[in-house]
Amino acid sequence: MFSIKIIVRTLSVFALVLTLASCESFVDIEVPNDRITGETVFTDDRSALSALDGLYSQLFNTAFAAGGNRSVTFLSGLSADNFEVTTPIPEVLEFSENEIFPPNDYNLSLWSGAYSSIYMANALIEGAENTSQIDDAIRDRLIGEAKFIRGFTYFYLVNLYNRVPLVLGTDYQINAQLPNVSPEETYAQILVDLNEALELTDETYPEDSRVYINASVVRALLARVHLFLGDWTLAENFSSEVISSSNLYELNQNLDNVFLKNSSEALWQISPEGWGGTFQHTREGNLFVRISAFNSPVKLSDDFMEIWEANDLRFMSWIGLFSDDTGDFNYPFKYKIQFDNSGGELTEYSTVMRFAEQYLIRAEARARLGNVSGAIDDVDQIRSRANVALVSDSNPGISANNLIDLILIEKRKEFFAEWGHRWLDLKRTARANEVLSPKKPQWNNTDSFYPIPEDERMKNPNLEQNEGY
Amino acid sequence: MKNKYSRLKRVALIYIGGIFLFLSVSAHAETRTTPLPFQQNDITGVVEDPNGLPIPGVSVSLKNTITGTVTNQDGEYSITAPSDGTLVFSYVGFKSLEQDINGQREINIQLEEDVAALDEVKINAGYYNTTKRNSTGNISRVTAEDIELQPVVSPIQALAGRMAGVSVVQNTGIPGTAPQIQIRGQSSLRTGFENNGNLPLYIIDGVPVDSSPINSFSGMTSAASRLDPLSTLNLSNIQSIEILKDADATAIYGSRGANGVILITTKNGENFNQKTRVSARIYSGVSQVSQRLDLLNTADYIQLREEAFANDGAEPTPVRAEDLLLWDRERYTDWQENIFGGTAETTNANVMLSGGGKNTSFQMSNGYFKTGTVFPGDFGYQKWSSGLSLNHRSDDNKFKARVSVNYGVDVNNQFNSASFVSNALLLPPNAPALYNEDGSLNWEDSTWTNPLAETLNRSNAKTQQLVSNLGLSYEVVNGLLVKVNAGYTALNNEELVKNPIEALDPSFRDNAQARSSHSFTNRNSWIIEPQIDFQTTTGDLNIEALVGATFQEQRSKNLRASAVGYSNEQLVGNLAAAGSVFVSNNQEIQYRYNAIFARLGLNLKERYLLNFTGRRDGSSRFGPGKQFANFGAIGAAWIFTEENLFENLPWLSFGKLRGSYGITGNDQIQDYGYLATYSPTPAPGGLFPTQLVNPDYSWETNNKLEAAVELGFLDDRIRIQASYFRNRSSNQLVGFPLPSISGFTSVQANLPATVQNTGLELDGSFISIQTPNWRWETNFNLTLPRNKLVSYPNIEDSPYANIYEVGEPLSIIKLYRYNGVDPETGLFEVEDVNEDGSINFEDQVVNADVGRQYFAGLQNQVNYKNLSLSFLFEFVGQDGVKFFRQAAGRMSNVFQSDFDNRWRNPGDTGVTQRASQSIFNTFTHSNAFSSEYLITDASFVRLRTLALSYQLPVKSSLIRSSRIIVTGQNLLTISDYKGLDPQSPGSDQLPELATITAGLEINF
């Protein structure tokens, strides 16, 4: 029975070991070194500000704002009449021929990039609202700037897709089932966000850098939103306020300097530092600057090349020409640096909003309100810089309607290859049909809004497709 | 970097070599110290089988000593022994025999065949051993003979076609990439590289090894698969691979057993009292892509392109039709031949040394493997491996220790391209020449991207892996064993991809710079498993019991960086010479695992068997409060031929019924999934949210049921095992898909669904000829799997509404109905089922199953005198997706048959649509490829392995035996599938290669 004793003893020692074995603390582990938990972010000022920085810098990495071939700049440029496709990539052709099929992957990237920014903004707003551990001034900055970016993003979503889901929180169980809402509802939310942002932001740029926003940027967007809503008075008021804060902004007389980092004309820019990688330059430069017959998918359309007056400085400075045996290719040359990873200073920033637009917003608002001379003054600011004949000299008696046409053409010249201005303006002024149907054989009425991506509708049964798809 | 690396390798080899040397000396020393008995005589004799044929390699030893020898080629032996001693003769497959010497000088022996002995072969069940006869669970086994001769890199690749219920697919022919293995079907919906819930648990010599593929920047090794950590194992050093399938076998692995368990046992040195033996084997061979696609020649291609422009009413322009306007319209290149038509050379060398004294024995092996690629250029894969196994036992046999160390280094030299092979299939046949007259790459005035440019982006991935294990056991009293099993694994991987300026189109070079990408992966883990093993017999009842605990930790580090600004092209890749370095990822992940487990095995009268296993598991991958869960199984077997009733059926030699039921789990989810986390942005100083939070997910469970019958006929010359299984997994952990309006495309969550895998597995063997000169044995296996989504409440409101369907397998694809080519428009037509005027996912009403309907293996082993032939056919019945082609008429080559059968004029009943480049054409083309049109028969029969060996009749005191071996891999594939490899339908990656090798093996 000696052995039984040993067995019992061994087993009891073992039982002890096993009891220890199931101690829960062994499987409690530390948070990994490459991330911090959501709660920790909003426990101190510094990390909260880092999250805000992240919201800005990730704009460079979300397709919609990045400036690359899935951005508003490129895709909306294709949908309007400034670009002509030279490399027949089907997804790109679909945009340029206004026959987008719902599975189009570029369209999905555009959409999901926008909602990714919105999620980040929502997370920041919730995080800042629910913490008591950060400084009030910083909390205001976080909420104000995040709401601005949310409003800005919805502005594009509602213009590109019309009826979109309005995501205002971070709970995926709610968000994943949200239906589309009317454009009116979205615009109402945009105004709520921007007005609150206006209250919470300072007049000066944080850290003196235009990759952040200040109150003038909020006003500039409010001016644009009101213009889009046909609220001419408010559009004029907000743009006037921006224009009068001229100690910060001016029309840069050297057109080669407009898109440089912290340019005096820039209202808001995105830094290519967001790339993080080793190619530090704008995606616009990368995409458009042509150094061979094949490197860029588009050239400027013949139609667009015909609208220019002689000696327009913008033509000379902002349009490049590549020629070889295969033909001539005019290309947007606002950003001069293409695939430059040869080191050195980062000189160009991707410009989201710039001062010149405010003159053209106010010009149009004034013309709509019947203030033709005020409108001429504003549009001449832009024409004067471009070194073309001033309206006040050449056609001072122009009618309000003709002046509006002229302003829109001026805008087309000023803002080609920038954030879809032409596409949005054509639709806003109900001219898309008239202008595009002669140029685009496949055009029909319903093409002014992009389809809700197929993939999204497959995952969210409450999302309705736009008409015509 | 290179110096540092090779130094490390050298140090490691010297170190291991030193251990070997020490061991062989000490083993030898022990041999000498054995006391010699009196009255030594030389005894000789011949050992024969029942047919009177000599048996070489029979172990002849003097009982209770370490003196021993083996018979030579003619079955002869000679041994020095005392006249009153006893000789023991033993050989696998024969009954051991003891013979007293009684003063005789010549002892001739005839050994009896022991068919039943095959039943007694020990099967590794992980924490315990069982035998085929007494096993209550389903364990498949492959042994060294079937593995070691195959010229493949991964041991998993060597399993293809060999086991019922185990499907192995090699998605790319690039060496060193991970094959895909599924044991009893797909149970998890997560199939991504980074997040795969279908990986089995790998245990190498008792140590769990993280088998998840290693990240790679190089497109060559990351497009279809990634780097396989198991590649560093030496196939020649594997003793056996056991695959545990049912609940009875896997439940003791608890949360990690759901997808099956793969036990890899390396050759161990339990060869006490054996003279030092050396065996060496070398082979070399060649490999090629065996399948090519039938694509257009230049004349047909040009015709098709011109037709497309004519159909579209468009004029070719230089930027849209460089092939028609800028390139030579007469030129023809067979791109398949030029891009992947080369011959890869393979060499393998292996040396093994074994021996042992009374208390200590050893086995060590060194292997080298090298294989090239079929691509132009100097690329390839090399592997060095060392294995050491050491066994020690005390004089009273109560204390035992085993050490096994396996160390492997592999170097994969490839280049960064994910589309190298598919480029060859797309390039117009009149595309320009690859080289200029001076030998430099031809860019044809920047009108094309030279496909060979990518070969300049060289990649180099080196992996070192150590798997070591120490097992100690002590028999406290008879039947009570206290054991500790401890293991340590370390894996180091470095990858460098260089992007020199020369790889770029000359027009880009002015403002470009050379770049390099670096990836460093480091995985370390340790495990300690204390155990008590108890065994006793009371009357007819034999009891085996086991309790144990597991503590395991794994740390994975990952650093990925890229660099530019090199002052000189020569220095590309040296981070110190880079102008700027950008770190894109630097993380350290910790995983901890803790468990207690137990087993109780009851065996009554060698007839009634019961087996209980259970485990309580805790894993750090779950949130607080969800970390622990219980798993367990019961298995039972009845060997009915032991009953008196069956004594009158002499043709039925063995019969067993068995069944098992139990619960296993799966914790293969991403670490830290329960935390809402922020990570640094690529830009300096920022933070951004990286995942959605769901703290509530918990263990998924997998219920496994199995029933089986095992039969043996005619003295077990015919053996059949038939099993039915039903695995149901519920509460499955998935990356629940979300619309991107929620900010992310998925969240970790438990799926409210039940997925069922059922199947019938049949395997067996059949010895059709057994005569003195001839032996023919056939092994077969057949699996009829069926996967089904059993339930999913409210699936129609979930993101899976348009992906899966209740009652259908997970392997379905939802497709449009295909209506053929419209004779008027010449376009592919699919059906607008709901007649809403638009073709969208709501019209995808056809569920096409692209899973395997059946798979089988048929192996024959034929021996005639010194000749031995073995070949394995793999059979797979499946539908697969067609190999995707661009719409005809675009600047891309197409199948000859698509060209021949295209629509040309109104009224034509074409099989494929008209040539065109319009987006409508592209859209209808892509619709057709999302319709029934996509599906085709992808069944195949493949001659997986072929091995012919000839035992050389060399007689020598030095050489025990030697043989010449010729092997073939994938030599023949029969399939109607039009693609590179029916094994992975639709893949445009390099197919698995066909290989022939020849080699020599010598045993000293």
Outline:
Chain A is mostly helical. Chain A has 22 helices and nine strands.
Descriptive report:
In chain A, strand 7 (319-324) and strand 8 (327-332) form a beta hairpin. Chain A has 22 helices and 9 strands. Chain A has helices spanning 2-21, 38-41, 45-57, 63-66, 72-79, 90-96, 105-129, 136-161, 172-175, 183-200, 215-229, 232-244, 283-288, 302-305, 313-318, 356-369, 372-385, 391-394, 400-415, 421-428, 432-439, 454-459; strands at 36-37, 83-85, 164-165, 180-181, 266-270, 298-300, 319-324, 327-332, 350-354. Chain A has a single domain, classed as Serine Threonine Protein Phosphatase 5, Tetratricopeptide repeat (Alpha Horseshoe). The longest helix of chain A has 26 residues, at 136-161. By secondary structure, chain A is mostly helical. Chain A has a two-stranded antiparallel sheet with strand order 2-6. Chain A has a two-stranded antiparallel sheet with strand order 3-4. With 1004 residues, chain B is mostly beta strands. Chain B is built from 11 helices and 47 strands. In chain B, a hairpin with a 6-residue loop joins strand 39 (818-821) and strand 40 (828-830). Mean pLDDT of chain B is 87; it is low at 1-37. Chains A and B meet through helix 1, strand 1, helix 2, helix 3 and helix 6 of A and strand 24, strand 25, strand 26, strand 27 and strand 30 of B. Strand 1 of chain A pairs antiparallel with strand 30 (677-680) of chain B, so a sheet runs across the interface.
